[in-house]
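Quick log. Single chain, no ligands specified.
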Amino acid sequence: MSWQTKGTLSRFRPRTHIKKRQRRGSKLDDDETHGPSEAATYLTQGDPLLLLADRHWALPSQQQNFDVEVVENVYKHHLRASKFSPAKTQALEFSQYLEHYLWPNFSPGQASLAYVMSLAIMVNEKFRERIPAWQVFKDRPTDFAAYFDLVMDAMISDEDDQVSTISQVTHYSLHEKSFLLLFLINCFNSLEEDLVREQVQRLCSLPMWTCLLPSRREQELKTNVKLKKYWTVIEKRDSKVNVEIKKRSQKERQFLFNLISKFFNILEGIPLKGKCNKHAIQFCERFLEFITDLEAQLPTRRFFNVLLDDSHFVVKCKMSGLAQRVPEGHLFNQLLERVTFYAGFEISDHSGVALTESQMLEEHYHKITALQKACFSLFPELRQFAMSHVAGIDRQQSLLKYLKPLSNETLHELAAYLNLVPKRQQPMETESDEDQIDNSLLVELLVYHCQRRSSQLEKINDMPLYPTDEVIWDENVVPTEYYSWEGCLALPKLNLQFLTLHDYLLRNLKLFQLESTYEIRLDIEDAVMRLKPWVTPEGNSDFAGWARMAQPITNFAVVEVAKPYLGENRPSRVRADVTLSLEVPDYVKQEWEALRKHDVCLLMAIQPKMSLDEKYNTSQNFASQVGITCVRGCEVEGLLDEDGKVIEEGPEPKPRLQGNQRTWRVWLDTNQYQKDMQAIVQGNEDIYESLNVFMRRKPKENNFKAVLETIRSLMNTDCVVPDWLHDIFLGYGNPAAAHYSQIADQECSMDWVDTFVSYQHLVDSFPNHTVTCAVDDPNEQIAPFRLTFSDQKSNKRRHPDEEGGSPIPNNSILVEPYTIPNRGPYPYNQPRRNTVPFTPTQVEAIRSGMQRGLTMVVGPPGSGKTDMAVQIISNLYHNYPEQRTLLVTHSNQALNQLFEKIMAMDIDERHLLRLGHGTEELETEKDFSRYGRVNFILALRLELLDEVKRLQDSLAVGGDVAYTCETAGHFYIYQVLSRWEAYMSKVKPLIDSDEGLAALQEKFPFSKYFENAPQPLFKGQSWAEDIDIAEGCFRHIKKIFSQLEEFRAFELLRSSMDRINYLLVKEAKIIAMTCTHAALRRRDFVELSFKYDNVVMEEAAQILEVETFIPLMLQNTEDGVSRLKRVILIGDHHQLPPVIKNMAFQKYSNMEQSMFTRFIRLGVPAVQLDAQGRARPSLCQLYQWRYEKLGNLTHVTNSPEYQMANAGFQFDHQLINVEDFNGKGETQPNPYFYQNLAEAEYAAAMFMYMRLQGYPQEKITILTTYNGQKHLIRDVLNKRCGSNPYFGNPEKVTTVDRYQGSQNDYIILSLVRTRHIGHLRDVRRLVVAMSRARLGLYILARVTLFSKCRELTPAFTLLKKHPQQLCLVPDEFYPSSRPVSVSPANPPLVIRDMVHLTKLVFDEYQVRLHAMRVQQQIPLPSPEELDVSSNDNMAEDDDQQIHDQQNDSADQQNDSADQQNDSADQQNDSSDQQGRPLDQHELVDHPVDQQNEPVDKQNEPVDHPADQDKDASQQQQEEDQP
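-> predicted structure:
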């Protein structure tokens, strides 16, 4: 179950504290995915398995002491005996059982069942933990091939289901085969690994067709001449090989066929009724997952799909007893639907070309007409069938009518004619019963192959977008957060490859919908538990509580059902009125009245079955216990006024309504309403009469419907990906095909504008090229430069199939310096220049981004990704002024950082546009939103017209020429341009003469206008200089009129919306938005005919697949061709991925994989930036190992702040071991709310120490890996120093996940865990944690625990070079005067533990306080006033008290606190709630005696373990409403 309550609490206890952590924050931790029981997750320290690991393989030096009996013992007594307990497998994997013991000692000839199983289980566990699994096997590919053969043999061997865990086992049980099958699934999902691909490709290649019926094989080969030739070659080759090779080949070719036959045997053994083998059902379900994965990838599907069809897999599964069992067959049938879908997918298996609906129909009609012809001539009893029209016989009922009356002999002959079954070799009478095929099977085969398949697109268009109660609590498709990987799910997967764009969008649509459904389920459970539904003694439904987000319905009525559109059978519109009685606090009433148009709400029917005193069973279904019988979604149209009319949204204030009754008009889902009405016709009750609860959701969490509509609309359009990107996007072909070096007709010569700060910088940026300058004079070799590459054209001659080929070596560059034309005499006319000296790899990334094609840039922390992206945008702007660039990021913060740097470039301000919320956070007084840009243009128009007026006065021209842009245009043509042409005709003949030099100034017609420019206007030194000044002045004037010409449309368009749309479609050249805004507004962009040529996407590794795809599709095609010329993806797949709230979607469906990461896995060429400029070199080493050749920029070694040591510390980074305090390390005041009081107090004491040493508080950040610890640290800080200005609070206290993308000078990091390593084992989280600090990083952790983790070894090996006790230099103060290479003058003070540090801080503060009081002559407080407890008075009961307070606080119901927390959630961490004010006496109390106040404040207690603050992701997303 996804909800839980404490056994001692009332059944109505709200679970807000659980729900909040799930929704906001965090992915589940790897060690918390097996269920709610902590005991089921970890092994105790003295467990025999852990002792065995310590004795034999925990240390690499123990590898030589191998004993095969240990493997047998581990498998029999620990794995199999515990029924493959997740805790056991997790402990084995963490102890490096595979790396240190199993694989180094693997011998193919001596591998037992236990050995084979142990290897497979360890690999599966690594996949579950999202840890690279294949690296350990790569050094012995031959042995891996031998092991793979053993797995193949095991899969087709006989089963032994006798429960035997101690004695010698020689046969694999079905339970064990399920693990081996999962191993095969993982293999087939790892095709990017050469080691694995070599093994699996042999199993699904063309030779596997030897298992087909000969007639079916001939039929397939006739349709493809190329395959016929290959088959002939295979037959010839087989005739020449020896017996041993032929036997091995036959084993590989027949493996999948034999595996399917084995599956059928197991499936047939499951009876229709009675007891059945649980492991047999699990194996069958897992096998369907295996088949689906094979069918969903073109390389495995190409030949396997025919074999699957020839084996009649779908038909036999549908007719099996398991498919008809209830409820055991529920998941099996859901999985079978997916197999059926992919078995008939609209694609040509051999060419990989997507088939349109018309092509599928044409193929179907051809098959039916051919069958009719055969029936007419060969089967007289089917003459009527042969004479019927196709549409009358290709439906299931029609086919059954004709086929059921036929005899077995006729059915068999008809099926044999269609190559579905073999022809009879003997008369039917002489056949045994076993050889005869049952009539029902023959009929089903014929129906399956002849019936018309329904259109997938029609199904999608008829699909309701809102979740219903049937789906919300279906654990097979919307699993709980406790998914343990032990069973399979009926979910699509996002792997490397997709069959077609339709397949890609369909998988993403389904997963996005189900992920939203999971969030909705959490919201419903929270709201319903607060409402406390119960059944009265009279049998009526009532609510004993109240909920802020849900209210009982007073009245519900459907008020309009509009007629269907032409060609549709569902209503075009369904509207209903929902009336509530809002007897709630005023602030809640205001929230309800603030519901906006298009907000999504939920309607529920609750018929409780339990009395007020009964308690819920957390192990049973939530909806059935509460009595939820129906859930329907709706969309708000508006609040009704007292006259029953919708109150329109606008600038006018809304009318104040009297009383508590409020009525909303809502739109219902027309597809769902049509289905509900059909159910009523079939005799079901009207569910709309029973709706009695109306629920709203927070706007920032409620955009799912708009995104789903966007994806569905893409599926209904000709979704065209650029030709150069199409194959890579689907995961096929040459991964480098979209690189600029592979695309023809590239630009050889391009203007690099201000990319290079000097000519020498240019030369250094191309170390592998010969750079030649067009001018020899060094004084003229000044930026900007135009570069011509001689190797640009030669690259395109390489054949795209030559994946490893090298371009023709011709690496010379011709550099042409040029001078930017004079723009005018005013200082602001001078172009702004880039000052960043880009590295050679950054220059290569810029070069790639300027050329057409796909550019992938991997940017390690601090490597200048933003500066590089801004330079690409600037270069594109200047090289292609007619093109438009779309800038997309995941978060508003990153988008604003990019946009602020773009504003500093030499880009005209009027061409910049920032869409969506977040513009108010830009650090500028200018407004770059849509409305702000329109106002800017209108204001600029007035300024320019004033300039025209001033120019008119300077020329003494009469009339009102500055009235409009149009009159100004006439003035320019007839007065300004004519004077300029006359002036040029007079001065040009006098070139380079003294008379001409004087004439330039005397005859200049605009001297009076430029009187306000710096004087003298003309220098009088040379003709060239002065004519350049004159031309610059005219360019300044010309620009005024060219801008006014652009602004004419804003005079003609009168409404704000028309002006905004014109700005978006025509005026703006660089448009910035978040990916969420793009998804929500795609329909608007398409309807406006929005056009763009380039897409630059920052934070690409943090964006979901579909949210990366949608920004590429915001415009219509041009003649069926995409307009896109460049796609530039910038990200870092070594840092944290997109945030997915449900573990099953994250891991099972791989939904956390971004498109950027998928392209990297496919081998798409990427430029990895190789120099960082954020952290000290010593800090960079902690994550440097994760990147290839990551170096340091010069300023991190030469800059003064990097050359100085950290004042008060011996080291600039240190791993500090923190032992238990009062016998406790990590604790859980509530489930999955991890805290460590010792580390929290240590972190607070370190911060106070740094403040005492003079460190500015804004330069210190405290990070942790868990939400629970974050709240505990905040509480401790508030208690210790929050109200004391001497200390204050750090710049931020937050989680590592939430701090991604930010940095600070000094980081204090708390790792929290002391029993199990948790989700920090994800190296991507470690990289983020280690890369946030610039100057100092101090890590609090249990060193013995984290040192054992293999994935963290590179970082922790470096960290352990320093002592594990904090080393301080108390006589140093900030800012430091000691160079980093110089040791402290005095021996460092070694801090023994947390108590020692807190006492040091306390004593030092007392000294400072005393000195301040003496200096200011303030009486000192007495010891009684100070109330300071000594160290000896720290007792365990104090620790227990804080623990009890935390638990009690989590159980309180306080909706006012709920309101405060929700309000706080919408603010930045810097404005997080503070503790109560403390006076100085409380401040100096000892940290442990003055325990922190209760952390749990109703909605803030439970850590959904992975502590990826999901509210971070949600705050980054737009709050736009569709």
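Confidence is low (pLDDT under 50) at residues 1-40, 161-168, 794-809, 1420-1522.
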